[in-house]
Amino acid sequence: MHKKIRPTIQDALEFQRVGVYSTSASDFVSWEKRKKALQDFKREADSLLRLHLPRTRNLVVAILTCHIIIEFALNKFIEFAAPTQTDVARERFSFAQKISILHMLGFPPDPHTIPSLDILNRLRNQVAHTLDLDREQVDILIRLNEAEPRAGRKLDDRERVKAVKLITSGICSYITGVIHGMNAVAFMDKAIRRGPTAPPL
After folding, report:
1. How far is CA 134 from the centre of its chain?
2. Can you list the pairs that 112-121 forms with residues at least 24 positions away whose Cβ atoms lie under 8 Å?
3. What backbone torsions phi and psi does residue 151 show, to the nearest 5 degrees?
4. What is the pTM of this model?
5. Per-10-residue mean pLDDT for the chain, 201 residues long?
6. CB of 1 closer than 8 Å to CB of 85
7. Sign of CA dihedral 49, 53, 55, 61
């Protein structure tokens, strides 16, 4: 992964003055640092889920909390999948834009995750702008993620909160798994190209 920061106007002016803009080995993230970053991400994601989800009892708070936790996972997916190192949180992409970037960077096109993210984002925006919540949309989100969807089932807010927490945990676990899978392939490819001197995975 390339870690050289995005060139600025100052870089362009310096290049005009000096005529050199080089790339060296230090401009790339080492495989060891990348593996450590993956381990750190897994710990952070587990901590977020463990510390914040159990405390949430109110449906509106659950939607807001789950949106924040999932956005953290989306940011990490983009950071690990992009060929250039970046701090996604500083780029000021909207959640909807991050969902599109997720797809563009090769996130598996399963029929549940991205539609679930779209619904969760609509719910979060509704709460943020109107302080109201469309419970029918919450129920659609829940049905999309049930192993055996039961249309017409009446849910109360306690059941909705529990289901939204489970969906959040599942989506975060899935994103974490995809990140690890993509990087395992990259590590193996790197090891094959480097030959017997490559460090063990």
Report:
1. 25
2. 112/144, 112/145, 113/171, 113/174, 113/175, 115/144, 116/141, 116/144, 116/145, 116/167, 116/171, 117/70, 117/74, 117/171, 119/144, 120/63, 120/66, 120/67, 120/70, 121/67, 121/95, 121/96
3. -65, 145
4. 0.81
5. 72 80 66 83 89 88 95 94 83 94 92 96 95 94 88 86 95 92 70 54 46
6. yes
7. positive
Any idea which residue has 């889920």 for tokens? 49
